[in-house]
User: Which sequence fits this backbone?
């Protein structure tokens, strides 16, 4: 090999593996805990307790929590710490509008593939949702089959119905 050529010449180029920082990993775990309901909507974030559960110090936990504040998942209250965000009544219409746009586009993309098995699953899920809206099925039996987002998990704390199918 000639000395004036870069070492990578003649070799396959492989991108560097990105590594997540401790703060990134903590933020991921906090999101999971919030989205799964392990950290309830409106609940205060017990910094010492959560840091102990995650096996990390409070400093990276605070930094990860600040990221979630910027994302709107947590709310910082000066002098009181942080808590899981709650969707207020006036924001619920916006949530439904966003979901409608996203889910309609997703349905169009899936339907355009013409995969009978997938279309059958979508039809069955839709029929379950219709049954729930007509009161023939409880919402709890339908919701786990749908991909729940942050918005769905936060609606109960707003103390309002989850739409026309909620009974």
Assistant:
């Amino acid at each position: 090999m000639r000395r004036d050529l870069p070492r990578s010449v003649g070799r396959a180029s492989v991108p560097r593996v990105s590594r997540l920082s401790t703060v990134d990993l903590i933020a991921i775990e906090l999101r999971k805990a919030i989205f799964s309901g392990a950290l309830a909507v409106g609940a205060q974030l017990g910094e010492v307790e959560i840091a102990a559960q995650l096996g990390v110090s409070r400093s990276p936990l605070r930094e990860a929590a600040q990221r979630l504040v910027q994302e709107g998942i947590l709310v910082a209250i000066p002098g009181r710490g942080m808590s899981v965000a709650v969707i207020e009544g006036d924001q619920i219409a916006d949530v439904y509008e966003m979901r409608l746009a996203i889910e309609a586009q997703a349905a169009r993309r899936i339907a355009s593939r013409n995969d009978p098995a997938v279309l059958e699953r979508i039809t069955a899920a839709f029929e379950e949702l219709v049954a729930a809206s007509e009161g023939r099925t409880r919402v709890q039996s339908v919701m786990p089959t749908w991909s729940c987002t942050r918005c769905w998990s936060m609606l109960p704390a707003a103390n309002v119905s989850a739409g026309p199918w909620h009974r």
Remarks:
- The chain has two domains: 22-84, 89-158.
- The helical segments are 22-36, 47-54, 58-71, 89-112, 116-133, 139-142, 150-154.
- The first strand starts at residue 74 and ends at 77.
- Residues 89-158 form one domain.
